[in-house]
Amino acid sequence: MSNLGAVAGLSLAGGGCGANLIVYLIQVFNFKSIDAAQVSNIVNGGSSLFPIVGAIVADSFLGCFSAVSVFFSISLLGTGFLALTAIVNSLRPHPCDVGASFCKAPSKVQFLVLYSGIALASMGQGGCRLILATMGANQFNKPQQQGVLFNWYFFTQYTATVIGATAIVYIEDNVSWGLGFGLSVAANFIGLAILLLGNWFYLNEKPQGSPFMNIARVLVAAFKKRNLPLSAMADDYYNGHHQQTNVEAAAPKKSFRFLNRASLKAEGDIGADGSIAKPWSLCTVQHVEDLKILIRIFPLWSSSIFLSTPIAIQGSLTVLQALSSDRHIGKHFKMPAGSMMVILLISTSIFLTLIDRVFIPMWQKLTRKSPSPLQKLGLGHVLNVLGMAVSALVESKRLKIANAHHQSQQTSMVPMSVLWLFPQLVLVGIGEAFHLPGQVSLYYQEFPASLRNTATAMIPLVVGIAYYLSTAIIDFLRRMSSWLPDNINNGRLDLVYWTVTAVGALNFGYYLASSKLYKYQNVEKEVASDSTSG
User: Taking the CB of residue 368, how many other CB atoms lie within 10 A of it?
Assistant: First the structure.
């Protein structure tokens, strides 16, 4: 429970700061709209790439709990810097006058504090986000229990993010930015306190050393021995000396046979005590097989990049669409533009529960086995493409209304309700409810034991690459076309959405081919055990 409490505090702080970042940069730091969206994408990319750094630190040096504690503290520091920019007048530029054609840019000191806060917050939140998932999964032995844990992990993360991106963002928009960011700091602090108080209840595993170093050693050793003939005798391959009990020995398999040379014994490779004398010339069979698993799963992993890229593009551009739409819901409530992505999060949270309680039991009754991670991933691909197509259709309608009412000014509000943007976010949210747990289960169960932390970090790594790729795509479209001006009412955002819809459809075809060729290593055992127990 303390693990989920820490996730809740971290996600609440992240939702309160991150969801409204674009609006904060535009309204307080006088950024142009597309530039603010680009900064947001870069920040989201950084926070999504840092889990791989956190995984390396946890696996190689500190272990899960210590690594999470360090990154949690960094997040608290960064969130505090952001709060200072909102509270201290000298740390932000003079407000831009309404209708002014020129606004004062932030000073170097103001930029320094702003970017330091953003960088530290994204680094800290990214660094410990999915190590928390691994630490929770390590408390269980059965894959089915781990799968339930992952569902509850994402449910807690999304629910807390929704609260942060609605309640805290509403305070930022309607009360003060300082109070809103201050609440994010408090949530981060409480999450860290819950984590530290739960230390005595965790099953902590010691760091095993860098798995990436072993991967590099396999590649170097295989290249060095590229001219040696392969042996059919298992005894000719090195299976380790005083092998650790939590890593199973394995005979070299026939797939990717050229890598087997890395574990092929040669004169001088082994010392008198049976240990490896030349670490860059000889590796264990297990290290070779670990690399093979990564190679087999790479096509599936790479297909997830273009699954996440359209979502990253939609996330930043939807905020800009909301800013130019009628955000009044009823007579007395105006929805904050920064809260738009909450619809996606709510959709994902609701369907994570429905999938676990309704969809999977129905599937088991019909097929007598649990849905595989690849099947969940496939449904996520389909729903994502549908969500992008709906985005394109809705934006076409918004542009027609804008042109009909001659809304050419950047501050002009198009008389179209923001509710029109909800269906596309709901579809993408349902898709995430399928493909996110599917990816976590696939990587965690299929990756080698030495790469468990890295396995859960593969998803944010994909998301991080997707955010940077989306930034590059938007920048390219700005340079090569007139689709994305600063005033989106004069652009063709609908063509951007149609483009990513086409890319998503092509990527789905690539995913189908990759999934058909992939053979499960461990998941099929879990499915078989589920069907016999059911």
Answer: 11
Cα separations (Å) of 248 from 168, 261, 289?
A: 48, 20, 11
Cα separation, 17 vs 129, whole angstroms: 16
Is residue 245 packed enough to be buried (19+ CB in 10 Å), middle (13-18) or exposed (0-12)?
exposed
Alpha-carbon gap, residue 233 to 230, rounded angstroms = 9
From the list 76, 75, 58, the residue with the least C-alpha distance to 67 is 58
- Distance CA(252)–CA(187), nearest Å, equals 50
Which secondary-structure segment (H or E) carries 477?
Answer: helix 452-480
Distance CA 397, CA 58 (A): 49
| 414 strand-pairing partners | 325
Residue at token pair 């390219």: 476
Helix (H, G, I), strand (E, B) or coil at 227: coil
Q: How far apart are CA 301 and CA 149, in angstroms?
A: 22
Query: Could you tell me the two tokens for 232?
Result: 């059919």
Q: pLDDT for 167-196, tens place per residue?
A: 999 999 889 999 999 999 999 999 999 888
Report d(CA 488, CA 504) in Å as an integer: 23
Q: Count other Cβ atoms within 10 Å, centred on residue 506.
A: 12
Cα 422 from chain centroid (whole Å): 22
With tokens 């130019």, the residue in question is 324
> Which residue is listed with tokens 């197509």?
389
Q: How far apart are CA 270 and CA 272, in angstroms?
A: 7
User: pLDDT digit string (tens) for 414-457?
Assistant: 889 999 999 999 999 999 999 888 887 888 778 877 676 667 66
Structure confidence by residue, pLDDT tens digits, 490-505: 889 999 999 999 999 9
What's phi and psi for 276, nearest 5 deg? -75, 125
For residue 430, how many other CB atoms are within 10 A of its CB? 23
Which residue in this structure is represented by tokens 């991106």? 165
The alpha carbon of residue 11 and the mean position of all alpha carbons in its chain are separated, in whole angstroms, by 13
Which helix (DSSP H) or strand (DSSP E) does residue 325 occupy?
strand 325-326
Three-state DSSP at 282 gives coil
